Amino acid sequence: MFFLTRVKGVYTFDDADSKRKMVIDVPKKQALINFEDYDLNFSGGVISLLTENGDICANVDTILLYELLLTIFNPYLTEYDAKWEKIELIDKAISLKELYPNLNFNGHISIDSKMFNGKFIQFCLDERVPFNSCYYGKFLNLERIKQQMPQDLQKVCLKYPDIFGDDESFAFEKKDLIKLARLLKNNSEKQISKGQLYRITDFLDEMPELWKEVKPQDDFFKVSNRIYKIYCLKENAKSLKQIAKNELQILEIEDMTTENYCVVVPRSLEDLIVEGQQQNNCVGYYYCDDIAANFSLIYFIRQKNDKSKSVYTCRYSTSMNETVEFRGFNNSNITEEEVLSFLKKIDYRLRSILKG
């Protein structure tokens, strides 16, 4: 059994008869160990030196102490300054834990010197989240929102801290972020998913001129569809004719039907855009280059009694000679046997058409 005493950053580990001893002096950046062949284990809150056949009896946080010992014994962490910088941070965290017993460091220790400030410590205690770099990033996002965004918009911005508080992911101007926040606030009664919002911000990030389409007084989904359509048309302007030409190769599969379903082939990029809007998928922009190069061809499966409404989106690979993707709304899987059987018949027909 090893007993630990800790005084002003100096950790002394003695066994019962003091034959084996270890001293970690953090201020002096020294570690004195009079035994070799150590092997650490941490189980049930107990740290053990297996080869030395002794548990460590400690009155400090064992998770942090284990991390400190791992760092000391780590043979791969050879850079002296980096090693002791990490040890100093863990020692600081141990002191912090003594001041705030309810502070949680979790099983994975990830800390930085900037995190040791009163606001973040209080944030971790109030929100009951671990004191680590992941939550420090979230904390910074929330602080930026409180400092930069108008008071009446902060509530809606706090729902999306990755967008309104992150200074690295996007290079949006403050006036544009305020405009987007007002759009969300004015549409607060609508069910807007994070995925739908992030898709818009991705387009705005790639094509900043689309910010003029963000009008706070408009319906969110009309704004979203408008941005989606303009982005797709601009991004694929050079391929419009080729996309239409390649899709027309498979137009004859539209005579195929089942009891409930039929096939619709898109005639233009606009048809693909509408499908993407209705199905909330990426077919209107992601596969356009593939379609133009004739690597992929898209077709839709729809209800016979309502051909205008999207049901399933399908992608046929001309190199694999089969339909490799078939999805419903929000990229949901297709399990309906009638449709799965229909896909096999469509593949057979497409192989015949494209071979000729």
Task: Summarize the structure in words.
This protein is an alpha+beta fold and 356 residues long. It is 43% helix and 16% strand. It is built from 13 helices and eleven strands. The chain has helices at residues 62-73, 80-99, 118-127, 133-148, 154-157, 161-164, 174-186, 194-206, 220-235, 240-248, 269-279, 288-292, 337-355; strands spanning 2-7, 10-15, 21-25, 30-33, 40-43, 46-49, 54-57, 261-264, 296-303, 312-317, 322-327. Strands 4-3-2-1-7-6-5 form a seven-stranded mixed beta sheet, covered by helices on one side. It has a four-stranded antiparallel beta sheet with strand order 8-9-10-11, sandwiched between helices. Helix 1 packs antiparallel against helix 2 and helix 8 packs across helix 9. The radius of gyration is 30 Å and the shape is elongated. The termini are far apart.
Quick recap of the structure?
With 356 residues, the chain is α+β, with helices and mostly antiparallel strands. The chain contains 13 helices and 11 strands.
Secondary structure layout:
Elements: E1 2-7, E2 10-15, E3 21-25, E4 30-33, E5 40-43, E6 46-49, E7 54-57, H1 62-73, H2 80-99, H3 118-127, H4 133-148, H5 154-157, H6 161-164, H7 174-186, H8 194-206, H9 220-235, H10 240-248, E8 261-264, H11 269-279, H12 288-292, E9 296-303, E10 312-317, E11 322-327, H13 337-355
Parallel strand pairs: 1-7
Antiparallel strand pairs: 1-2, 2-3, 3-4, 5-6, 6-7, 8-9, 9-10, 10-11
